[in-house]
Amino acid sequence: MKIIVTADLHYGISPGHDKRTLEFIRRLSSLLPAEAIVICGDVAETVHLSVRDMGLNHRRLFGEIKKLPLEKIAFCAGSHDIWTTGSDSGSGDSWEIYSNTLKNVANECGVTYLDAENLYLDNLAVVGTMGHYDYSLATKGLTVNGMAVKNAHYESKTPPGHSSPVWNDANYIQWKYGDKEACQIICQAFEERYKEALERCENILVATHTVPIVEMNGHQEKKNEKSNFLNAFSGTALLGEKIFKYRDASKKIKAFSGHTHFAVGPLVRGGVEFTNIGGDYGSPSCILLDFVAF
Question: Which residue, 32, 39, 157, 200, could crosslink 165 as a Cys pair with Cβ 3.0–4.6 Å?
């Protein structure tokens, strides 16, 4: 059994970008046939779509992928999958997109939405989540422009000495929750699906968008203050804790993530193998997983 794992396709940004993404999809034919393709978030863009058109880019991309000899398609959400300019502009609420719109699109397309359900393939479970961030992966003791970075700076996505946010989630994730509360809710739901997967299967493929351990960031401890500030939004240690919490030596677990656009791994922590796919805008990447070797 072959599984293709990819991330950060960002379909719908621009015609030029989309052309390269579709070329990448067509090149996957050299790896096929395969049982499934798993996309670790930021599948397609939503920010400029109205409520009526929400999911349009996802439908188009899934339609292209389904032309390949693949049995299953599964994805978790990424931040770009839930970006919106808000209900006042007629483009909806990010939590509604995350909880319902993407699930409905997946059902329409015959695709598994991992933020709602697991994908089971014989003795392999694919369990996933967008994840989020709670600043637990922030660079410790960081200063920007000579001033200490505080929690309020992360909440506003605006470092000291800056007048506006430097992380676009501040503008385009529109929901009633703060980051920490949203992170708790999302990770708790993942934990329930993860426990179910472990009860049913010996082999677990975890697909997260944001990174679950700090080593998967790839950007830690740079000299650039702004880059270090952005580490806070790379993921959450809470997700890693939940992955490790139910670790059983009899289970084989491989965890994949995206989000940072920086390839890392594979490396083993706590008996789990972690890999960051590392795809970037216009230059997607993938990993071919052989279930026999899993």
Answer: 157
pLDDT in tens, 196-211: 999 999 999 999 999 9
Query: CATH fold of 2-290, please?
Result: Purple Acid Phosphatase; chain A, domain 2 (3.60.21)
Long-range contacts, 107-111 (Cβ 8 Å, 24+): 108/59, 109/58, 109/59, 109/62, 109/63, 109/66, 109/73, 110/66, 110/73, 111/62, 111/73, 111/74, 111/75
What are the tens digits of pLDDT across the range 156-172?
999 999 999 999 999 99
Percent of the chain with pLDDT over 70: 96
* Nearest Cα to Cα of residue 133 among 3, 10, 287, 260: 260
For 12-71, how does the pLDDT look when each residue is reduced to its tens digit (9 = 90+)?
A: 999 999 999 999 999 998 888 899 999 999 999 988 877 777 888 999 999 999 999 998
Give pTM, 2 decimals.
Answer: 0.95
Place of tokens 């203050």: 225
State the Cα–Cα distance between residues 73 and 112, nearest whole angstrom. 6
